[in-house]
């Protein structure tokens, strides 16, 4: 029995964490060899900034849809429509925040980073269309397609001589590859009991609050591990997430509103100050990491009012690092 559990855990780690991690490493190896370390650092930071905006505003509608995959078709259609409306509103807010972020970079003289953010943001709308998957199981598919699709697009950009612009577009367009693969390959879970209740957006808010806390725990833990262990820290963080450690330490995420506000405002201010005063490309990544942690705090604040909404457990997350 113990051997079976160990094999299942290793299979889970291999498919959900390590295989995507290798795809990510390959993607960034191609990018770095093509554009150099300075522009690769700018591009990595731009990607982190853009995806942080997604973390801030996007709801987690998948668990609510997954509960209804075996429900009557009218119930599932109503749930998908509700989720898409909420995701559409989040996309609009995200676009406004992106414009504000890019304007801030321009004002600080970081024109190249600003334009890279816009190019990477070509994939931002795809992240808000996952309700079209209808709650089918797509976690492993989306994460693998995202990372290995990015590596494939980066290779095409290298072969075509597209340079930095091509690499930035590759990071954006890989989001559409992940969405397309999920729409095509995802399958329903036939073991899910039918939940035939109409979806209210408060339920999505409850799941989104739980997701925000879990992501905060992961981002903070990964940041600490990377600072201490270097590149090995990312591997350790993925392993911890794969074995369920993040779900266990989630309860230590802040529950104090003043502390969350301080983390959000302080982290954002520190990130922008670092960019303004020390605009070295290598420090862009540090600033983007601070911004990610700040945004994770802000996401908890955004969904705070739904903290008491009773929802089931959900540890699935198509987001990759």
Structural key phrases:
321 residues; mainly alpha; 76% helix; globular
Description of the molecule:
By secondary structure, this protein is mainly alpha-helical. The chain is built from 13 helices and no strands. It has helices at 2-35, 37-57, 62-66, 73-107, 111-120, 124-127, 139-160, 163-185, 201-229, 231-242, 245-249, 257-277, 281-302. Helix 1 (2-35) packs across helix 2 and helix 9 runs antiparallel to helix 10. The longest helix has 35 residues, at 73-107. The radius of gyration is 19 Å and the shape is globular.
Q: Supply the number of structural domains.
A: 1
**What is the helix/strand order?**
HHHHHHHHHHHHH
Mean pLDDT: 88
Percent in strands:
under 5%
Query: How would you sum up the major sheet?
Result: none
Our Rg estimate from Cα atoms comes to 19 Å
What distance separates the N and C termini? 33 Å
The overall strand count is: 0
Helix percentage = over 70%
Q: Uncertain segments of ≥5 residues (pLDDT<50)?
A: none
Which structural class matches the secondary elements? mainly alpha
Number of helices: 13
Q: Any idea what the shape is?
A: globular
Layout of strands and helices, then pairs:
Layout: H1 2-35, H2 37-57, H3 62-66, H4 73-107, H5 111-120, H6 124-127, H7 139-160, H8 163-185, H9 201-229, H10 231-242, H11 245-249, H12 257-277, H13 281-302
Helix pairs in contact: 1-2, 1-7, 1-10, 2-4, 2-5, 2-8, 2-13, 4-5, 5-8, 7-8, 9-10, 9-13, 12-13
């Amino acid at each position: 029995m113990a051997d079976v559990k160990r094999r299942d855990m290793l299979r889970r780690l291999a498919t959900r964490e390590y295989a995507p991690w290798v795809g990510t490493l390959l993607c960034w190896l191609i990018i770095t060899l093509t554009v150099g370390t300075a522009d690769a650092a700018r591009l990595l930071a731009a990607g982190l900034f853009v995806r942080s905006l997604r973390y801030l505003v996007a709801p987690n509608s998948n668990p609510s849809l997954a509960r209804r995959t075996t429900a009557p078709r009218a119930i599932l259609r109503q749930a998908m429509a509700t989720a898409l409306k909420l995701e559409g509103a989040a996309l609009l807010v995200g676009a406004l925040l992106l414009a504000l972020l890019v304007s801030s970079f321009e004002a600080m003289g970081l024109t190249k980073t600003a334009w890279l953010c816009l190019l990477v943001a070509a994939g931002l709308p795809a992240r808000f269309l996952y309700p079209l998957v209808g709650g089918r199981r797509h976690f492993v598919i989306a994460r693998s397609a995202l990372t290995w699709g990015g590596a494939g697009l980066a290779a095409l950009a290298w072969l075509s001589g597209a340079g930095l612009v091509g690499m930035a577009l590759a990071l954006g367009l890989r989001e559409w590859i992940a969405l397309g693969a999920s729409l095509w390959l995802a399958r329903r879970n036939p073991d899910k009991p039918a939940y035939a209740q109409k979806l209210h957006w408060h339920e999505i808010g409850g799941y989104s609050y739980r997701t925000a806390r879990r992501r905060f725990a992961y981002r903070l833990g990964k940041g600490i591990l990377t600072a201490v262990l270097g590149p090995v820290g990312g591997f350790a963080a993925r392993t911890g997430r794969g074995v369920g450690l993040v779900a266990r330490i989630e309860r230590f995420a802040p529950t104090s509103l003043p502390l969350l506000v301080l983390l959000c405002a302080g982290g954002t201010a520190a990130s922008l100050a670092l960019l303004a005063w020390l605009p070295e490309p290598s420090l862009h990544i540090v600033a983007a990491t601070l911004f990610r942690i700040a945004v994770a705090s802000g996401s908890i604040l955004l969904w705070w009012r739904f903290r008491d909404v009773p929802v089931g457990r959900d540890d699935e997350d198509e987001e990759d690092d």
